[in-house]
């Protein structure tokens, strides 16, 4: 098989949860373009139908399935319907997620807010892994599961949602556990950890001009990601190109997490002091916008 053919998923079937908006729509398009049949799963059926219409217009085989991932019975029904329609499921993209606890004081988070976030981001993701992997392990044909975590699962961010960060951190380690648990039986499990991308979840942040300015002044690439920029990593993990990769997390964030969360630009006074010692070598690489 040529190296480019390794990235094709022709004739395989992929479930994408949370395919009704944001990154899930992109993931569905990427997989369909690479040849997969696609199951679109989420709660907003009207939105899924819109996505399905676009995919079918490009020749894809698509199944729309209403599903609340936090309900294991709903997950079982969705996966069962996918199996019935396409014969099996080869790829699962666990993308559904919420950031339900916008509050910044962990000590004040209400039970229901905590449980809602964990119920979707961790429990729901696990119900989907369990349901799909049981069937993949039973028929022995293997599969690839991709869990969508976040850079907020890799380190903590003060003043942003605690339950969200906890759930995403748990997803990273659950992925390691499932990856090694099923490694000898052909089911690979990996994580995709995005940085900041526009979506319904992040729109409220991007609507604040000061947030945009601050982000662009501190992010190494000085910009947010475009959802299409997640496609390459997704396809790598979904396809045979990653046949010897399991339990891993691929970060796609324009270098934000590599910067360790420290703003790359410090106050001008600091650079002035450095410049006194080092001359031009003490000045910032990128001038403040
Ligand atoms: P989004 O536009 O709000 O999409 C979230 C998706 O999850 C929607 O399709 C929603 O569909 C679905 N969903 C929520 N609760 C669900 C449930 N109980 N059952 C089934 N589906 C459910 O946000 P997004 O940014 O694209 O987020 C997608 C994933 O990427 C999330 O896991 C998020 O944590 C992760 N992520 C995003 C970013 C970013 O910058 N955008 C960064 C890091 C990680 P319904 O409402 O129709 O059910």
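^ Assign residues to that structure.
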């Amino acid at each position: 098989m040529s190296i480019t053919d390794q990235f094709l998923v022709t004739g395989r079937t992929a479930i994408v949860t949370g395919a009704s908006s944001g990154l899930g729509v992109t993931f569905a398009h990427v997989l369909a373009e690479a040849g997969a049949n696609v199951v679109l799963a989420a709660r907003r059926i009207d939105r899924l139908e819109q996505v399905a219409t676009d995919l079918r217009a490009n020749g894809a085989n698509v199944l729309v399935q209403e599903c609340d991932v936090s309900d294991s019975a709903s997950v079982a029904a969705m996966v069962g319907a996918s199996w019935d329609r396409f014969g099996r499921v080869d790829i699962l993209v666990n993308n559904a997620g919420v950031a339900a606890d916008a509050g910044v004081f962990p000590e004040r988070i209400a039970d229901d807010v905590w449980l809602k976030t964990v119920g979707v981001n961790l429990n729901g993701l696990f119900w989907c892994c369990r349901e799909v992997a049981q069937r993949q392990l039973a028929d022995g044909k293997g599969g690839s599961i991709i869990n969508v975590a976040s850079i907020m699962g890799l380190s903590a961010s003060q003043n942003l949602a605690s339950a969200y960060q906890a759930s995403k951190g748990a997803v990273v380690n659950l992925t390691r556990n499932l990856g090694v648990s099923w490694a000898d039986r052909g089911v690979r499990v990996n994580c995709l950890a995005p940085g900041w991308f526009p979506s319904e979840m992040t729109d409220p942040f991007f609507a604040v001009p000061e947030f945009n300015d601050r982000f662009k002044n501190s992010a190494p690439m000085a910009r947010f990601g475009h959802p299409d920029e997640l496609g390459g990593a997704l396809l790598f993990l979904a396809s045979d190109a990653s046949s010897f990769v399991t339990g891993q997390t691929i970060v796609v964030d324009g270098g934000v997490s590599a910067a360790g969360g420290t703003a790359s630009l410090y106050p001008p006074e600091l650079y002035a002091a450095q410049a006194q010692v080092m001359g031009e070598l003490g000045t910032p690489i990128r001038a403040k916008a």
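The chain has one domain: 4-263.
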